[in-house]
Amino acid sequence: MATSSTVAAAPALTARLQMQLLSVKVYGPNIQGRYGYVPRFMLREVGGQVGATIERIDVFNPETNSWNAAGPSCWGTALHVGANGSLDTFFTDEGADWLGYCAPGNEGTSPKPTLRILVMFASDNGARGTIDVTYVSPP
Prior knowledge:
Layout: E1 17-27, E2 35-45, E3 52-61, E4 66-70, H1 72-75, E5 80-81, E6 86-87, H2 93-99, E7 106-108, E8 114-123, E9 128-136
Antiparallel strand pairs: 1-2, 2-6, 2-7, 3-4, 3-5, 3-8, 8-9
């Protein structure tokens, strides 16, 4: 008598990225009364199984209903977070200097912005994920 068995494929592991130490640097106002907003944050992989490459960072300002995207086409290189690792490029002054005008950010008329920040990434095995965080300025 023949027997058969079915083995279910294990689900694809996805990197588990967390955004930590989020703040927003506010610049301005400029001569038109507009402020520039540059989020500062660390990315940390906490799953310990696979790393991830950052595909895009979008910053939404609900005050102006505008999105601004940043990604590797402007950075000129892939930014990767290893398993159990961290990436401080978006947190440090050195990272901000390196990113220059390619840093994620947005602009508006308030010195105390509320921003939505999305970080899209691809795990090393191809699985995709997104971090979706809202930053509210302290009073």
